[in-house]
Amino acid sequence: MKKAILLLMLGATAVSTSACSTLRGAAIGGAGGAGVAAATGGSVEKGAAVGGAGGAVVGTIVDN
């Protein structure tokens, strides 16, 4: 249940964040990382953190 709520929150953040590529990249990366972690039986929190960090970097590069 906790995983589903986390994924829904991250998905809502990704959809609602439209102005800044860094924030959008972090939200999408976090949701993707959490999804992969949940599917493989890993830590959803760690997956979201790693995915969010990676997405933020990509979003920053795309924004420039």
Distance between the termini: 38 Å
SSE ordering: HHH
Describe the sheet with the most strands.
Answer: none
Query: Residue share in helices?
Result: over 70%
Mean pLDDT: 75
Unreliable stretches, pLDDT < 50, 5 or more residues? none
Pairing-aware structural class of the strands and helices? mainly alpha
Radius of gyration: 11 Å
Our count of helices gives: 3
Assign an overall shape.
elongated
Strand segment tally: 0
Portion of residues in beta strands equals under 5%
Brief synopsis:
Keywords: Signal. The protein is mainly alpha-helical and about 60 residues long.
Task: Write a structural description.
The chain is mainly α. Helices cover 86% and strands 0% of the residues. It contains 3 helices and no strands. The protein has helices at 2-16, 21-40, 44-63. Helix 1 (2-16) packs antiparallel against helix 2 (21-40) and helix 2 (21-40) packs antiparallel against helix 3. The protein is elongated, with a radius of gyration of 11 Å. The mean pLDDT is 75. This is YMGG-like Gly-zipper domain-containing protein. Keywords: Signal.
List the helices and strands and how they pair.
Blueprint: H1 2-16, H2 21-40, H3 44-63
Helix pairs in contact: 1-2, 2-3
Organism: Sphingomonas dokdonensis
Keywords: Signal
Protein name: YMGG-like Gly-zipper domain-containing protein
